[in-house]
Amino acid sequence: MGVKGLWKLISPVGRNVKLDIWLYQFLTAMRDKEGNGLKNAHLLGFFRRICKLLFYNIKPVFVFDGGAPELKRLTLNERRKRRTGNANNLQKTAEKLLSAQLRLQAIQESKGSCKKIITDDHENKMSNLIPEFFSRRKRDEYDLPSISGGIE
């Protein structure tokens, strides 16, 4: 894994710098007024160091070489498990969405067939029941009156 021939390309002009030394410098040297370490000292230190290198027309190329350290292996394993779990969750979610859409379609179709039955001979009976139903409903205190015309 990686870029083949990268070291041959950058070795004539490049110089190796251990970034862990930079990290240690930033974390130990950058303090607040009370002497406590800054929360993001490593980020601030890297930013300032890179700005200084760019000021002197030095273009840094960061190469992270090597395998993952032992401390990160647990994190990598957790991420791998989470990814496989997410794939399973995705499948379950897709199945739930499909079943919900099918249910919604069935409900809409059943409402359509009910409308046909109602319109045949029960239309008059229903027209009498609808105002009764709305009069029993509690008025919503946030219900706004309809506006005549349009909002422009």
Please report the distance between the alpha carbons of the first and last residues: 61 Å
Mean pLDDT comes to: 77
Q: Which stretches of 5+ consecutive residues score pLDDT under 50?
A: none
Cα Rg: 34 Å
Number of domains: 2
Determine the structural class based on helices, strands and strand pairing: mainly alpha
What count of helical segments does DSSP give? Answer: 5
Tertiary shape? elongated
Helix and strand element order: HHHHH
Main sheet overview: none
Tell me the strand percentage band.
under 5%
* Relative helix content: 55-70%
Q: Report the strand count.
A: 0
Keywords: Nucleus
Protein name: 17558_t:CDS:1
Domain XPG N-terminal: 1-86
GO molecular function: DNA endonuclease activity; hydrolase activity, acting on ester bonds; single-stranded DNA binding
